[in-house]
Amino acid sequence: MSRILVVDDDDQLRRALRINLAARDYEVLTAADGTSALRTAGRTPPDLAIVDLGLPDIDGVEVVRGLRGWTSVPIIVLSARDDQAGKVQALDAGADDYVTKPFGMDELLARIRAALRRAAPQPDSVTITTAAFTIDLAAKRLTTTAGDDVRLTPTEWHMLETLARHPDKLVSQKQLLREVWGPAYENETGYLRVHLANLRRKVEPDPSRPRYLITEPGIGYRFTP
């Protein structure tokens, strides 16, 4: 089930979008202004965002910039502004698509499906094999060399996935916190120590001397396959 964030100050339109999306088995989060939208996205990261440009507190373009600062999820902009300059500004800020009000619900739903398809990971390059385990990012599965499944919590999996997608590259503490918990938690370094210790106990042959999940003290972490 994909999670969609709807940001619009029009109560009727927000309700209509929530009903139509929920009827198609999407999980829906809503916000009536930009500030609460960014807070909601930070707390519960969406898979796609629909953002109105004419918000009561901050401009929707700023919301797009705020989201794009830490996530690459698709962003579809809604607006009554039909001038080319407005569209270009939103797209330059990081939006992936632009729908002008009024719009047909079928058209918006088709754009949502297309955006989610483009954002889906490609299954031909998402298997990482080490001497101790194999990570299948598409299936969200971790197995030992003997073929046994290793059970991870959603948070542990998200941490492992984030590090594994950047093999041999340093992922800063703030980047990892943003990716896993959202931007509101980028200073909560204690979260990383606790969950990484649990993750090491499950994947490292010797957790006291980690081979795969390496700490760069005070900076971040590195996955070395």
Across the major sheet, the strand order is 2-1-3-4-5
CATH architectural designation of the largest domain: 3-Layer(aba) Sandwich
Q: How large is the count of helical segments?
A: 8
Q: Structural class, please?
A: alpha/beta
* The CATH homology group name of the largest domain: Response regulator
Radius of gyration: 20 Å
The fraction of residues assigned to DSSP E strands is 15-25%
Number of strands: 11
Description:
- With 225 residues, this protein is an alpha/beta fold.
- Helices cover 40% and strands 20% of the residues.
- It has a 5-stranded parallel β-sheet with strand order 2-1-3-4-5, sandwiched between helices. Strands 6-7-8 form a 3-stranded antiparallel β-sheet, with no helix packed on it.
- The chain is built from 8 helices and 11 strands.
- The chain has 2 domains: 3-119, Response regulator (Rossmann fold); 123-223, Winged helix-like DNA-binding domain superfamily/Winged helix DNA-binding domain (Arc Repressor Mutant, subunit A, Orthogonal Bundle).
- The mean pLDDT is 89.
- It is elongated.
- Strand 7 and strand 8 (141-144) form a beta hairpin.
Characteristic key phrases:
2 domains, alpha/beta, 225 residues, 40% helix, Rossmann fold, 11 strands, 3-stranded antiparallel beta sheet
Please summarize what this structure is.
The protein is α/β, with parallel strands linked by helices and 225 residues long.
Topology:
Blueprint: E1 3-7, H1 11-23, E2 27-31, H2 34-43, E3 48-52, H3 60-68, E4 75-79, H4 84-93, E5 97-100, H5 105-119, E6 127-129, E7 133-136, E8 141-144, H6 154-164, E9 170-172, H7 173-180, H8 189-203, E10 213-216, E11 220-223
Parallel strand pairs: 1-2, 1-3, 3-4, 4-5
Antiparallel strand pairs: 6-7, 7-8, 9-11, 10-11
Helix pairs in contact: 2-3, 6-8
